[in-house]
Every structure is written in C-alpha cells, then in structure tokens.
Design a protein that fits this description.
Blueprint lengths: L9 H6 L7 E4 L6 H6 L6 E5 L2 E3 L3 E4 L2 E7 L5 E4 L6 E4 L2 E6 L1 E4 L7 E4 L2 E6 L2 E3 L6 E4 L2 E6 L2 E5 L4 E6 L2 E3 L2 E5 L4 E6 L2 E3 L2 E5 L4 E3 L6 E2 L2 E3 L2 E5 L4 E3 L3 E2 L2 E3 L2 E5 L4 E3 L7 E3 L2 E3 L6 E3 L5 E3 L2 E3 L6 E3 L7 E3 L2 E3 L6 E3 L5 E3 L2 E3 L6 E3 L7 E3 L2 E2 L2 E2 L1
C-alpha cells in the first residue's frame, strides 16, 4: 500500500545533503548491525544489511535521520535470544525496511519508544513473547506492509498520536490484532486472522482515543469481538470493514464512546450479535449483517441519541433488531428472515422515531 501521509519525513531525506550522508554496509564495513548503528553520524546515513542471520539485539537510541534496511532482494534476519531484536528509543526520522525479526520469546519483536516520525516498512515479526510491534508514547509512527504472526500478546500496539497502520498482515495472534490508543490514527487495509481476543481494539481499557479512521480492514477469526470501541473511543470513523467468524460480537461500541460513525461495514457468521451498541450519539449507516449467532443489532438501554439509517440484517439466529435504546432514529432499515423477530421493541425502544423501515415481523 502506498501513502503520502505515511512518510512525512522522507521528502526531507531527498533534500538532504548527499555529501553528508554515509552508506554503511553490513558485514562489509562492520561485522554487526549494532556496530554500524553506533558509527552513524545522524545526517541521513543509510545502513544496508546483506543476507544473513544476525544473532544480536539492535538498539537505535538517540538517533536521528537514519535508515536501516535489508539490501534489495536479500533475506536479513535479526535473531535475538529472548531480548527485543530491534528497538528505537528517543529518535526521530527513522526508516526500518525489509527486516525479519525473530527470537524475542519473552519480549517485543520491535519496540519504538519516545520517538517521532518512524516508518516501519515491509518487515516481518514472528514468535514474540509479548507484542509483535509496539509503539509507546511515540508520534507519527507508520507501520506499512509488514507481517506479524505467532505472537503471544498483541500483533500491533500503538500508543501516541497520528499513527498509520497500513496494509499489514497479522495471523495467529494471542490477544488482539491491532490496538490503538491516542488521537488521529489511521488503520487501513489490514488483514487480521485468528486472534485470541479482538481483531481491532480502539481505546483499550478506556484510554482516550479520538478521531481514528478504521477503513477496509478484513478480520477473519477472533475469539472475542471483531472491532471493539471501548469507553474512551470517540469520533471514530469505522468504514467498509469486513468481519467474519468471530466468537462474540462483530462490532461492540461501549458505553461512554461518543460521536462515532460506523458505515458500510459487512459482518457475518458471528456467534454473538452483529453489532452490540451501548454508546451515545453514534451513527450507523448502510451496514450489513448476515447470520449473526444472536441479534443482528442489539441496542442496549444505555445507548441513546443514535441514528440507524439503511442498515440490512438477514438470517440472524435471534432478532434482527432488538431495541432498548432511547431518543434514537431508525430510518429505512431492513430486517428479514431472522430466527426471532425482525424487530423486537422493549419499553425503552418505544420512545424512538421509526420512519420507512422494512421489518417482516415486529414485537413489542
């Protein structure tokens, strides 16, 4: 996936004084990657690593304007014995490209801390004992076209502002596929398969998470929810995602989450509800739910001031819409062929506005 916003610092790199930049080769110039890193001057130096397995734990600390990359077409493995294979700390304008990170049986595969403008591109992380890729209190971190698999905890975990998680593949993740805390994150075009908990989790643990864009991701197989918006997740746009085969709800929007827009998402074959909604001021438009194991939309009593427009629910095992929310509007929704009622209204649900909906069966 190509994106201009993902590489805010690379334009500067092209303008850098070529006379100042050094190209350092491993192992031709230095036998280890860490030795090459230690030798860099901070003027857009490039470390190019040739094919091989490097038994070391590499740390970029207090480094600026540095590229660390595998030589084109070469398979470069950084294999640590239990430690973090690659760490970036207190650094800025860093590019990491084409590296394979293994061996962190008790730690992160790749860890970025207190850093800014870091691009992680085309890297592979396997076998981590904690998270695959972790960005902690770091801004403008982009993780693009990477593969993360067979990790014990989260696949990708970002904590900061303006992270971009683009076009990655995550598989066999012990906990959550992608976790995001902070503001203005973009999570676009990722494929997430077989997670022990959630596919994507915004506002983990109730942490403030505002203005996220979650678009065109595919989640296939999670033991909890496909996409979860926790209490702190506000003003997110959840657009055109596909969610399949989850053991709980396709999308869960928690109480306290406010002002989120969920549009044109496709949810099918859940064991729980297609959408479980507890939020305030949410907008749900043109979503499609098929074969939910419980209700297509379960709208709890703590949800209010929401808008439901042109959503379609078919073949849910229980009700299409089960409505207990208040002060909300239902316009041109369709529910049919559901195992219970197409629309079940509790006492609270009677207070909402209903306009031009197509419900085959209704119960109050």
């Amino acid at each position: 996936m190509k994106t201009l916003t993902a590489v805010p610092f690379l334009a500067l790199l092209l303008c850098a004084d070529a006379a100042q930049a050094a190209k350092i080769r491993v192992p031709a110039d230095f036998p280890t990657i860490q030795a090459a890193v230690n030798a860099t001057s901070g003027h857009w130096d490039v470390i190019e690593v040739s094919q091989g397995t490097y038994l070391e734990a590499v740390t970029l600390a207090n480094k600026d304007e540095l590229t660390l990359q595998a030589k084109n077409g070469h398979k470069v493995i950084i294999h640590s014995e239990g430690a973090i294979p690659l760490s970036v700390t207190n650094s800025r304008n860093i590019l990491l490209k084409g590296l394979r990170l293994e061996g962190a049986t008790f730690d992160y595969g790749l860890n970025v801390m207190f850093s800014t403008d870091v691009l992680i591109q085309g890297c592979t992380v396997t076998g981590s004992g904690v998270d695959g890729i972790k960005a902690f209190l770091s801004d403008r971190v982009t993780i693009e076209d990477c593969t993360v698999k067979w990790v014990i905890c989260d696949g990708i975990d970002v904590d900061g502002d303006n992270a971009c998680v683009l076009g990655n593949t995550l598989q066999h993740i012990g906990w959550n596929g992608i976790v995001a805390v902070g503001t203005a994150h973009t999570i676009d075009g990722n494929t997430i398969k077989e997670c022990g908990e959630r596919g994507i989790w915004l506002g983990a643990g109730g942490a403030a998470t505002g203005g996220a864009l979650v678009v065109k991701n595919k989640i296939d197989g999670a033991w909890q929810d496909g996409i979860a918006l926790d209490t702190g997740a506000d003003a997110a746009t959840i657009l055109s995602n596909t969610i399949l085969r989850v053991d709980d709800d396709g999308v869960d929007v928690a109480s306290g989450a406010t002002g989120n827009v969920l549009q044109q998402n496709k949810v099918s074959s859940t064991k729980g509800d297609g959408f479980e909604v507890h939020c305030l001021n949410g907008t749900f438009c043109k979503n499609k739910v098929k074969r939910a194991g419980d209700d297509g939309f379960w709208l709890a009593a703590d949800a209010a001031y929401c808008t439901f427009l042109k959503n379609t629910i078919t073949s849910s095992l229980s009700d299409g819409f089960q409505i207990a929310c208040t002060n909300s509007a239902f316009v041109e929704n369709t529910a049919k062929k559901n195992g219970g009622y197409d629309c079940f209204l509790s006492a609270g649900g009677l207070s909402n506005a209903y306009i031009n909906n197509k419900f085959g069966t209704i119960a109050e």
